[in-house]
Design goal:
With 234 residues, this protein is mainly α. Helix content is 74%, strand content 0%.
Amino acid sequence: MDDFFIKYYTQLIHLVEIIAAVTGVLLYKKYKFTSTKYFIYFLVFIALAEIVSMYTYLVEYNGVLGFLKSTVFRRNYWWGTLYWSIGSIMFYSFYFLKILKTKRYRGIIKVSRYFFLCFSFIFIIMNFDEYFTKPFPIISVLGALIIFLCVIFYFLEILESNTILHFYKSINFYIAATIFLWWLIITPIVFFHIYFRNVDWDFIHLKWRIYLFANIFMYLTFTFALIWCRPQND
């Protein structure tokens, strides 16, 4: 079974991403007048961004992008940092700004997201060569902190309102709980990237399993939530 998951690691992740994105598109009318429509846009964007990240397969093995093999674009770390490590944080902070009501919480998130964005680009500029060769743990950790901040504020609002009585019907609850768990599980792994670069296959296989099951859990939960939950007016 482990051999199967490792062999089809990339295909399985893309599959659950596409399932979530397609489900969102099919149910778009259901959420058309709520903030959830932005979440559906995001799911589609991530599915497409993941497909784009596979351009490295066309670089290797004498593919049509083989001319990139001797350039910094032969690896896709730069793209992953841009669309996920930075892009997903900016989206989720934007999304929670849409659904949070407390002015103080919204203000903290606004300041935090702009600080994160400025810091990330300054850090990349200062470490531009490494931007193409590895992920940046500091950006991942700061991004995770912003996610935790957004989720904690959301849960505090739930506890302070009548929403607590029917939270299990709220798609925002599933989104918040899922991304909190995902970042909690995945963030520590970035500190062990040195083992990935040194081709420690025991670590690489462990990392793949963690990423695989974390992504399957996240995107299937999103799919379930889109189907199960009722639209919420903002």
